[in-house]
Each structure stands twice: as structure tokens, then as C-alpha cells.
Design brief:
By secondary structure, the chain is an alpha+beta fold. The chain contains six helices and 17 strands. The protein is globular, with a radius of gyration of 21 Å.
């Protein structure tokens, strides 16, 4: 494939823009393999600086071979289920699906052990997965059994009509009891595992409501308007209110202990009959003040 650079830019950044379906790490390996040339010369350094008018040629970026997905029996906490979808209360420490850097047991392995099909729309690694939760985040996640259900649910998420509400325990004092963080998110400039508030990132909005001050920290409710990777964690940490137990974004003294972020509430329309499905799931036992969290305070503040 041949392309032309339209300004100064790192080679890996240029290819990432043209091939958004591939990770930066995968593109870097592709470059290092000698599969990319600039003005007819093979370039193997990801940081090579392109200039306006440079001709970039690349071989096809091959799909990563899928993991061998074997069913693993799990005692999943299913909060809703019918012939087309189910909603699971995901436990802490369980990744949702395999990834290039993750080959251990995931929620997908447990879903495969159940006696029903899963949608294939999300790819080989992610059967049934409509949206994700971070490995250490607990709470409600939707799983599609059919491609038709997956398409309908994905359309709702794209249209931002799915209500996703969380509770978190954070460190610090908020400027107001209720406010909105509107700050674009993108890849962290130095750490590929992290996201950051960046000027050229994708739009991201998180609505925040203070709930109660506790000895451990301040409990807040959060509603996602968008659903970017690590959105709540990054937004809160960037402005000085990190989630307790967050080993990526909290300062060192606040990293220990279970991460205090829980997907407590989901509201969406059934993809076939249009009926509203509204679910609430209280936080797990290792969530600070879990017995104080009520459905009304998570859902009724806006």
C-alpha cells in the first residue's frame, strides 16, 4: 500500500492514523520487521521523522493469530438473561477478553462454557463482548448471544443512549457537589498501557456527583456520556482526584488495595422488543462503604 505524508510526523504515528484498527505496539513491530519503506528505502525505526511529500509504502499488516479459546467453567453472577443477551456482574481481577499481552483465563472463557451461542461481531478474541470493563473494575457488563443483538446494542452505545453509572471512592476534594469533566482522551505520550488528557484526543465527558465523605475517601457517582478506555480513571486522576487502588493512575501512596470503581447501574433498550432494561448491582464486599450505596443515589441525581 502506498501513501504520501502531508507534513512532519513520526512514522509510527503516521501509520497508526492510517491503520486505526492496529495497536501502536503492533505497528512498531511491523516497521521493525522491514515491511515499511520511505521513498524506496526500507525504514526499521518507528521514530523515523517523515517530511511533507515523503512516499510511504507498507506491506499488509497481518492480523494477529487468535488465541485458542477453550471453555472454562465459571460460577458467573448473571443479573439478566434471555435468548438474545445476558448481563453479568463481573468480579474483580477477571479480564473481559484475551489480548496480545493477555493469555490467561478471561470472562470470555467462562461465557464459552455456557450452553448458548455468542455473537461474533467483535472478532475472534471477543465473542459476545459489546463493551468492556477494566480487569480490576467490578460490575455490570452486557454480553450479546446473537449478531443481531450485538448490532442493536452497539448502535445504542454509539448513540450514547445506554446509561452506564459507576460508584468510586476517590482521594481529594471536589470543586462542586455536581459537575462535568469534558476533556479529550488519547494515548499516553510515554506509556502505551495508559491513556491521558490530550488536546488532539477523542471527546470524553464524565458527569460526577459527590455522595459522601468516609474515612477512606470520598464516594462519588459517575455517569459516562462517552465510553473511552479508562475514562473515569483518567479524568479523575488528571484533575487531582484519583480512584483509590488504581495502580496505573493513582500516586504511589494510593495504589495499594482493591481498586474502588464499580459499574453499578445499566439502563438500555432491548435490541428486539425495545423494552427498557434497568439493572442495579451493589458494589462487592471489598468496596469501601459498599453497604451504604443505594440504587436511588446512583441513578436519581440527574
Amino acid at each position: 500500500m502506498n501513501m504520501v505524508a502531508d507534513g512532519k510526523e513520526r512514522l509510527d504515528h503516521f501509520l497508526s492514523r492510517h491503520f486505526p484498527g492496529h495497536s501502536r505496539a503492533k505497528i512498531s513491530k511491523h516497521i521493525e520487521s522491514g515491511a515499511v519503506s520511505v521513498n524506496g528505502e526500507v525504514i526499521t525505526k518507528s521514530g523515523f521523522q517523515l517530511k511533507d511529500g515523503n512516499e510511504v509504502s507498507t506491506e499488509e499488516i497481518l492480523e494477529t493469530a487468535p488465541h485458542a479459546l477453550e471453555p472454562v467453567e465459571m460460577d458467573l453472577d448473571v443479573r439478566f438473561e434471555d435468548d438474545e443477551l445476558l448481563v453479568v456482574n463481573k468480579p474483580r481481577g477477571l479480564a473481559v477478553h484475551p489480548a496480545n499481552t493477555l493469555t490467561g483465563t478471561t470472562l470470555v472463557h467462562g461465557l464459552l462454557a455456557r450452553s448458548h451461542g455468542l455473537s461474533g461481531s467483535a472478532g475472534d478474541f471477543r465473542p459476545g463482548i459489546v463493551h468492556r470493563l477494566d480487569k480490576e473494575t467490578t460490575g455490570l457488563i452486557i454480553v450479546a448471544k446473537t449478531d443481531a443483538a450485538h448490532a442493536g446494542l452497539s448502535a445504542q452505545i454509539q448513540a450514547r443512549t445506554v446509561q452506564r453509572r459507576y460508584v468510586a471512592v476517590i482521594n481529594g476534594d471536589l470543586p462542586d457537589p455536581r459537575f462535568t469533566i469534558d476533556a479529550p482522551l488519547g494515548r499516553h505520550p510515554r506509556n502505551p498501557l495508559m491513556r491521558a488528557v490530550v488536546s488532539d484526543g477523542k471527546s470524553a465527558r464524565t458527569h460526577i456527583q459527590s455522595l459522601r465523605q468516609m474515612n477512606e475517601g470520598l464516594m462519588v457517582a459517575c455517569r459516562l456520556e462517552t465510553g473511552r478506555t479508562h475514562q473515569i480513571r483518567v479524568h479523575l486522576a488528571h484533575f487531582g482526584w484519583p480512584v483509590l487502588g488504581d495502580d496505573l493512575y493513582a500516586p504511589e501512596k494510593l495504589k495499594s488495595g482493591p481498586m474502588q470503581l464499580h459499574a453499578a447501574s445499566l439502563t438500555f433498550q432491548h435490541p428486539s422488543n425495545g423494552k427498557e432494561i434497568a439493572l442495579f448491582c451493589p458494589p462487592p464486599d471489598d468496596f469501601y462503604g459498599n453497604d451504604l450505596v443505594t440504587e436511588s443515589e446512583v441513578n436519581d441525581w440527574e
